[in-house]
Specification:
Thioredoxin_domain, alpha/beta, Glutaredoxin, Thioredoxin-like_sf, about 40% helix, globular, Thioredoxin, about 110 residues, 5-stranded mixed β-sheet
């Protein structure tokens, strides 16, 4: 299941989450972001119960994008215990994204 993260729910859904959280910072006009959509959905299904996965639209949540210094999209940030643990930018294969998630979970 994919979540939609906003400035209103980010504190509760991401920073206070009991599990690690993968946040996909994206924009609707971004082609690489759209390409990553199915990849992120696959990761959400595969890691259900172990990692919370969701998207954050940077155009609608500019404060969050600025706070986490998102300057290129798609950008993926893994949060653990309320802190950004790993950040990676750009379109990638499902295998690459899975490997990065696995590294952050160690």
């Amino acid at each position: 299941m994919e979540y939609k993260f906003t400035e209103d729910n980010f504190e509760a859904e991401v920073l206070q989450a009991a599990t690690p959280v993968l946040v996909d910072f994206y924009a609707d006009w971004c082609n690489p972001c759209r390409m990553m959509g199915p990849v992120v959905e696959k990761i959400a299904e595969e890691y259900e119960g172990r990692v919370k996965v969701g998207k954050c639209n940077i155009d609608e949540n500019m404060t969050l994008a600025a706070r986490y210094r998102i300057s290129s999209i798609p950008a993926f940030v893994i949060f653990k215990n309320g802190s950004p643990e790993a950040t990676f930018v750009g379109a990638m294969s499902a295998a690459e994204l899975k490997e990065k998630v696995e590294q952050a979970l160690r």
